[in-house]
Design a protein that fits this description.
Blueprint lengths: L5 H11 L3 E5 L3 H14 L3 E5 L1 H6 L3 H13 L5 E8 L2 H10 L3 E4 L13 H17 L3 E6 L22 H11 L3 E4 L21 H10 L4 E4 L7 H9 L12 H9 L2 E6 L1 H17 L6 H23 L13 H10 L5
Helix pairs in contact: 2-4, 2-12, 5-6, 6-7, 7-8, 9-11, 11-12
Length: about 350
């Protein structure tokens, strides 16, 4: 089965009222972990690559690993999505490469940290929608800015300074014709999101619910959705790591989001923690090992466990074979039949 349209996967998720995890990858082992978890749980898959991941893998390695994934796991509908495209040009190069979905993150300027104007965001996103939809490729946009800075996709603030305004979200969707909308509800990227367990108020769930009420047919995306579980932190610290105490987004809040229009949930950090913990454990317990497979295999297994758990918690488990993939060509024809309102 070729790589599939993210719009189709999210439309199906909306019909079935479940969410789909979007997991970041940089290498073969991470792709294998996700595909194995998908086979085990019978889940559709969204795999996403940041600009950093594309640079790390020289782009083509990652693309061909994804083609290998579709060959080895032909029963799994699999999307390849660009995470946080910083400019229309970055999105165009991903489309050219064969990504079936792109995120134009016009909430920030191309430097990935300076909040942009609403007008800039509309213009950049709309430009990407026009080019992507002509090829049947899905577009995610973002309104409001996330916190965090270490990955270059956040304001560097606490995540509270640029929350999504529901009225602006409505205007943005209408003006751009996008397929999925990333919103800012006080989450941030990375391991250090909250200094104590966040409540629904800390997380601005009421705002999410309000956005869904105003945009009931739009697929919402929750970025910065790692839960940063204590057990994964503990393994790292037990084997010589130095993580400071921290809290992520509780799974029950994500599940409340899924009941209110969230269809795509972005997770990277939890998998990074799982991999690092497993590798540290081998290094600490078997210092004589030097075959990379002796630590990459447990790392792959640890990430697979986290992904399979999230697939079950988000509700996508069991839905891999509910539908037949629609070709990008058919998607392009569908988009052409519904042009964006001016
Ligand atoms: O959005 C952030 C993801 O965790 C990707 O991070 O830019 O370090 O690859 P990265
Ligand atoms: P985490 O850092 O919480 O895993 O967020 C990942 C993300 O939002 C990727 O776009
Ligand atoms: Zn993100």
């Amino acid at each position: 089965m070729p790589l599939v349209s993210m719009r189709q996967v999210l439309d199906e998720a909306a019909k079935g009222k479940y969410g789909v995890g979007a997991f970041n990858v940089n290498n073969m082992e991470q792709i294998q972990s996700i595909m194995e978890a998908a086979r085990e749980t019978k889940s559709p898959v969204i795999i996403q690559a940041s600009r950093g991941a594309r640079a790390y893998s020289q782009d083509r390695f990652l693309y061909h690993l994804m083609i290998a994934a579709t060959e080895v796991y032909p029963e799994i509908p699999t999307v390849l999505h660009l995470d946080h495209g910083n400019s229309p040009e970055t999105c165009f190069s991903a489309i050219e490469m064969g990504f079936t979905s792109v995120m134009m993150d016009g909430s920030l300027m191309p430097d990935g940290k300076t909040p942009s104007t609403f007008e800039y965001n509309v213009e950049a996103t709309r430009k990407v929608v026009e080019a992507a939809h002509a090829k049947g490729v899905t577009v995610e946009g973002e309104i409001g800015c996330l916190g965090g800075i270490e990955d270059g996709h956040g304001t560097g603030l606490d995540g509270l300074s640029h929350l999504t305004d529901p009225g602006q979200a409505v205007e943005f969707v209408k003006a751009t014709g996008l397929d999925a909308l990333g919103i800012a509800i006080a989450t941030s990227h990375g391991a250090y999101k909250f200094s104590s367990k966040p409540t629904g108020e800390t997380l601005k769930m009421a705002r999410l619910i309000e956005i869904h009420k105003r945009l009931p047919d739009v697929h919402l995306v929750m970025h910065g959705s790692s839960s940063v579980p204590k057990d994964l932190q503990d393994i790292i610290n037990q084997y010589g790591g130095k993580l400071k105490p921290t809290w992520g987004v509780p799974v029950e809040e994500i599940q409340l989001g899924i009941k209110n229009g969230v269809r795509k949930i972005n997770v990277d950090t939890d998998n990074r923690l799982a991999i690092t913990g497993a590798i540290r454990k081998v290094f600490a317990e078997k210092p004589e090992e030097f075959d990379p497979r002796s630590y990459l295999k447990p790392a792959r297994e640890a990430m697979k466990k986290v992904v399979a758990l999230r697939m079950t918690q988000f509700g996508q488990a069991g839905h891999a074979n509910d539908y037949k993939p629609i070709s990008l060509e058919t998607m392009a024809n569908r988009y052409a039949a519904q042009p964006v309102a001016v």
